[in-house]
UniProtKB/TrEMBL annotation:
Record has Nucleus as a keyword: no
PANTHER family named in the record: OSMC-LIKE PROTEIN, PROTEIN INVOLVED IN RIMO-MEDIATED BETA-METHYLTHIOLATION OF RIBOSOMAL PROTEIN S12 YCAO
Gene source species: Desulfuromusa kysingii
GO molecular function: transferase activity
Lineage: Bacteria, Pseudomonadati, Thermodesulfobacteriota, Desulfuromonadia, Desulfuromonadales
Any Pfam family the entry gives: OsmC
Protein name in UniProt: Ribosomal protein S12 methylthiotransferase accessory factor
Keyword Ribonucleoprotein: yes
């Protein structure tokens, strides 16, 4: 994977640049931003859901099961005082006619997400100056 570079165009905007893409982030107005882009925390949560969604989608594609009407949702529980993330809850809303025999298997497939695995077995973080 290529290195990710952050740039700081002004205000509360921070952009991530990698592999020819630029992802903008901002903060809500009540946190000093202009709400011009998603806040980083929401991108973090979105990455969990879209990664799990990719595995659920691939599961269906490999079995020639329609994903029309299928959606996934993510909700979180946070500690009321520390705001620490305590639980991530994902739900797959299966399309009509989805075979019962695959319901547990698609949940297992969604659980294969590499973003989820990275959180479940967290890496060491290091911040330095250069």
């Amino acid at each position: 994977m290529a290195m990710i570079t952050a740039t700081f165009p002004g205000g509360a905007v921070v952009n991530a640049n990698f592999s020819g893409f630029e992802v903008s982030t901002d903060q809500p107005e009540d946190n000093g931003g202009t709400n011009s882009a998603p806040e980083p925390y929401m991108l973090f949560l979105s990455s969990i859901l879209t990664c799990a969604g990719f595995y659920a989608q691939r599961f269906c594609q490999q079995r020639q099961l329609s994903t029309e009407g299928m959606t996934m949702t993510l909700d979180i529980d946070r500690h009321p005082e520390s705001r620490r993330l305590e639980k991530v809850k994902m739900a797959i809303q299966l399309p009509d006619g989805f075979p019962d025999k695959y319901q547990k298997a698609i949940v297992r497939a969604a659980g294969m997400c590499s973003v989820k695995k990275a959180i479940a077995d967290p890496p060491e973080f290091e911040v330095i100056t250069e």
